[in-house]
Amino acid sequence: MYVCVCQAVTERQIHQAVRDGARTLKDLRRDLGVTSECGRCAGCARQCMKEAHGHHAPGGLMAHAACA
Ligand code: FES
Predict the structure, then answer these.
(1) Element (H, E) at 58
(2) What is the rounded CA–CA span in Å between residue 27 and residue 56?
(3) Distance of CA 53 from the midpoint of ligand 1 (Å)
(4) pLDDT digits (tens, 9 = 90+) for 6-29
(5) Nearest residue CA, atom 2 of ligand 1?
């Protein structure tokens, strides 16, 4: 699923970036371009990072329904 439509960044790419060392939204912006245009993906990208770190939000995958 796309997290950042402007830069065509998927959830999978964000998880990979976290595995590669990204720790903040700023890291994701530098590595993938997330939030570099309209910025609407910020909340979802942050959620995605949390999941990648193993901190699942209440509602699990449903959290992403809000991002779609
Ligand atoms: S959706 Fe990510 S910058 Fe627009």
Answers:
(1) none
(2) 20
(3) 22
(4) 999 999 999 999 999 999 999 999
(5) 4
